[in-house]
Every structure is written in C-alpha cells, then in structure tokens.
Amino acid sequence: MRYNTFTVNELIDQVVCNNDMEDCVIGECQLCSTKSIVDILTEKISVNLDENCSWTIWKKLDNRFDLQQVTSSVEALLDQIEEKWSSFLLHTFCNRRQREYIANLRAQSSKTTFIVAQVDFSMNYNLIRQREVQQAFFSQKQASIFTIHITIGKEHRDIAII
C-alpha cells in the first residue's frame, strides 16, 4: 500500500477553481473541476476498496449527537466522505470568511471606537454537595461556564463567566 500525504486545502484547491468565491464552493461555477472528491482521493492513494478500515463520526441518535466508531470497507468510508463533502466545503468557506471578518474588526478596534468580544459556551457542570441524600441526585443545580476573549486595539483580555 502506498501512502501520500496532502492537506485539506490541497484537496479543496483541486475541486474548486477559486475557494474565495461562493459560487465555486456551492457547486454553481462552470469553471470548477467536475472531479469528485473520491476520484481525487483514489488517484492519490493506492488501496483496496474492499479492505476494512475504522473511523469515527458524529451521528445523531435520540436527538443527541454521539461519536460513533465505524468499521467498514474503504469504499464505505469514501462514500461517507463524498456525502459530507459539499457541506464541508460550505462550512470551510463560511469559517474562513468569519475569521477574516473578525480579524479585520480586531485590527480596527481601539479604546475610542469599539471592542470585539468573542463569547463561547464552554461547559455545563453539575453541582454536587458532599453527603447529600440519594434523591438529591435528581435535582442537582447546574453551573454554565462561558469564556470570553475581548480585544481592544492591541490589548487582549480573557474572562470566564459562571
């Protein structure tokens, strides 16, 4: 078996002609490659498509997302990649645009104009009291932690709110 390494950006560049153009990313550009991601991947690697392999994937079960371990053929893995590829391309495009926009805002912020506050939900924690009765397990209080990064010009501050 031959292994080649390549980055996600290299794969994206082979599928779209301009990864800064929304039409290319959503598949509406006439100039973009008509090659599927599976064709590109199978050109780069020499592998038996019937060979078994394992991977993990987030799946929604009972209205909750859970990380699942999957063992199947390489062909099944490639089918899964093909199925998710268009949404991955759009996600990557939006993510890059948002990062560029936030970087631009941070560069423009100052004490006299505006600040940039990036807030993220971090975690829910159950509050457990020592030596509590067993029934208290079903009525535990929770605390949520939110992390905040504030940019004011060249100054940076990190805050956690509970």
Mean pLDDT over the residues: 86
Q: Give helix % range.
A: 25-40%
Q: List the uncertain runs.
A: none
Number of strands: 5
Straight-line distance between termini? 52 Å
User: Strand-and-helix sequence, N→C?
Assistant: HHHEEHEEE
Per DSSP, the total helix count is 4
Give the number of domains.
2
**Percentage of residues in DSSP E strands:** 25-35%
Largest sheet: 3 strands, antiparallel
- Rg calc: 23 Å
How are the strands ordered across the major sheet?
A: 3-4-5
Structural class: alpha+beta
How does the overall form come out from the CA principal axes? flat
Could you explain how this protein is built, in words?
The structure is a single chain. The model has no long low-confidence stretch (mean pLDDT 86). With 162 residues, the protein is an alpha+beta fold. The protein starts with 7 loop residues before the first helix and ends with a strand. The strands form two sheets. The chain has a three-stranded antiparallel sheet with strand order 3-4-5. The protein has four helices and five strands. The relative contact order is 0.10. It folds into two domains: 8-108, no CATH class; 116-161, no CATH class. Strand 1 and strand 2 (64-73) form a beta hairpin. The radius of gyration is 23 Å and the shape is flat.
Chart the SSEs and their pairings.
Layout: H1 8-15, H2 22-25, H3 37-44, E1 52-61, E2 64-73, H4 74-108, E3 116-127, E4 141-152, E5 155-161
Antiparallel strand pairs: 1-2, 3-4, 4-5
